Amino acid sequence: MNLPKDLKSIVTAESRNALLERAALPLALVWLEVVFKTSTTGEFVPQLLFVLLFSCVSGMLANLAVSFLPSKRACKVAKTVLCALVGVIFAIEYFVYRQFKLFYDLNTVLVGAGDAATGFTDQIVSLVASPTGIVHVALFALPAVLYGLFGRGEVLDVESAGFVPTLAHKARNCGIVWVAALLAVSVNGAFMHSYTDQYTFQSAVTNFGLLTGLRKEVMHLITGSGSTVSFSAVAPSVTDEDDSSAEGIVAGKNAAKKDLSARDARQKAKPSSYKDNKLDIDFAALADSTDGTWADLDRYVAGLAPSSQNAMTGRFKGYNLIFVSAEAFSAEAIREDTTPTLWRMANKGIQFVDYYQFDSAGTTGGECANIFGLLPTEGGSSVKNTATFNNYYTMGSALGRMGYNGWAFHNNTYTYYDRDATHNNLGYSNGYMGYGNGMEQWVTWQWPQSDLEMVKGTFDNLYGNKASEPFNVYYMSVSGHSGYAPGDNAMSIKHWDKVKDLPYSDPVKGYLACNIELDEAMRYLVKRLKKLGIDKRTVIVIGADHFPYGLDDDGPLGSLPYTSELYGYDVQTYFQRDHNRLIVWSASLEKDDPIKVESPTAAIDILPTLLNLFGCEWDSRLLPGRDVFSNKPALVFDLSYDWKSDLGTYYANTQEFVPNEGAQIPQGYVEATCADVANRINYCRGVLTTDYYRLVFGDPA
To answer: Is the pLDDT score of 241 beyond 70?
Structure first.
C-alpha cells in the first residue's frame, strides 16, 4: 500500500507512541524493582531475570486493567496514581531494609508499622533526609513524575469491532511472559522450591522481586494457604540415628578436642541408660480424632524419635532462672576490657562456640526463637498470634508448673509489639511489666533506656529476696539499640569515655559503649545474687534478639562495613552475619572446667536445652530444636532453608553443600537433611498459626 510520506510519518509516530504507552507500566515496575534490588540485596544472577519477567507481567496486567477506563484522561490519572503508590511501597520497604536489614511482610507491616513509626521517628527521619535517602525517594518517584508529564493514556474501545481481538492480543502477550517467567524459575530447582513449597517473603523478594513477594503474601492472606503445612518422609539417615552413629561420621577437628563438651557428655551416656524425653501422649490417636493441620502435625510428631535424657538432665533443678533477650547483642560485644562481667560469664559458664541467632523478623522474631523455641514463620505476627494460645512450652509455663514465681520485664514502652498482650501469656505468674505499667518508677525516659536501671529496680523491689525463690525472670533489654552515634544515643553518651580510644570507627565504638550498660546490669545482678548467697543456685542466660543491624545504613551481604569491622572479617553469608554467642552462667559452674558446646547451635535450641537442664517434664518431639546435651545430632537452619550440621553447611539458593574438613558424608545425607529442615520449618508454621498445644494439652490451667 502506497501512503504519502507525511502520512507514513504520522502512522509511524502514532505506532511508536502507542507502543510506549503500553510499555509505560511494565517499564515503570522494572525500573522500581531494579533500583530496589540494587539498593538492597544486590543479588543479580539469575535473580534479575526472574525479577524482570515477573515485573513485566505485573505491569502488563495493570496496563490491561486500567485500559477499561472510559477515557484516556482517566487512564492517565490512574496510571500516574498507580506509579506513585507503588513507588511509595518500594520506598517504605527500602527504608525498612536500611533500618532493619530485612523485608517486612504484610503481617509485620500491619503489626509493627505503628510502633516503628512512633518508636523510631528520629531514625526514620534521619534515613529519609540523608543524601542517600533523598536520592532514593527521587528514584522511586521518577516513574510517576515522568508518566504524569509525558503519558497519554490508552483505553480499549468496548464498542469497536476490534475490542475482542485487541483484548485477546494483550492477554496472550501477558500469558507468554508469565509462562516464560515460570519456565525460567522451574529450570532452576532451588528457586522453584523458593517460589512454591519453601516460600518465605524474604526469599521471594530477594529472588523474584518485591511485587511478587507482596502478591504471594496477599494470596496467602486471602486463601489461608500460608497457615497450611505438609510434611515429607525423611529417609533414614544420621538425622534420625542416635549420637553413637553420628560420632562415627565426624572425623574433623572437633572430634579430637579434650574439653568437656556437649559431645563428650553425650558419649559418657549410653542411650539405654536414660529415659526418653517423651510424654505419654498417643499422637497417632490424636490424629485420628481431628483433621486438617492439627492432624498433619499429630502424624508428623508421632513419626519422630524422642531424644534421651543425659548426664546434664536436671543439672539446674530447683535453681532460679534469669533470662535476658539482649537487644542487638553479639559475640563481639563480649570484651575483657569493656564488658568484664559478660566476659566472665561467657568464659566461665557453658560455652557455646558455634552459635547462631538468625535474623528473620527483627526483635520480635528473635524473641519468638528465644521464648518459644520456634522460628518466626509468620513474621511480625509470629509472637502476636500467641496472645490467646496455650503457650505450654515456654520457660515461664514450664517452671510455673513446678511452682516458680515468675516475672517478665521490658524497659521500653510496655505496649510495643503488643507485649502487653503477648507477654502476659507466657506463663509468668506475676505477669509482665514495661515502661507505662510500672517500669517508669525505676527507669528514666530516654533513648535507649537503661538496662541497669531496669535490673536494679526490679531486683531490689520485686524478686531479689529469698522469699521469692525459686524465681523465674525474663528481661527484654533495650540499651543496645541503634543508632550508635554518641550524640544521639543515651547509652553511648554515658559510656563514651570507656571506648573513645579503641581502634574502631565511631559507630562501632558507640555500639560497644551501649553494651557496657548491659554489662553493668549483669555486674549489679551478680553482685546482689552473691550478697544474698543465691548466686550458686541461680542461672543467668543471655541470648541476642538479632545481630546489630543498626550499625550499617544499607545492608546487602558484602556491604556491611561497620558490622564487618566489628566482626573482624568481611561479612558475606547469613551464617557469618548471624553468628553470635549464647551465655549460660551460674556461679556454681565456675569451680569446674568449662563445658564447651562445639556443635552448631541456634536460638531454637535454647528452650529444649533449658527444659533438660532444669529437669522439666517435656516431650522433645514437640520442639524443632534440640537439647544440645542429648543424643540428637546438631542441625541449625534459617527461614531461607540454609542449614548447618556437624558435617557441613548447605546453601539453599545454590543447592550447594560444603562438607567440613575430614567429614565423611553418608549417601543421601544432604537430601534427607533438606527434607528434615523443611519439615521442621513447616512444624513451626503449624504451631504458630493453629494453637497446636491447646489440642495436645487442653486449655491452660
So the answer is: no
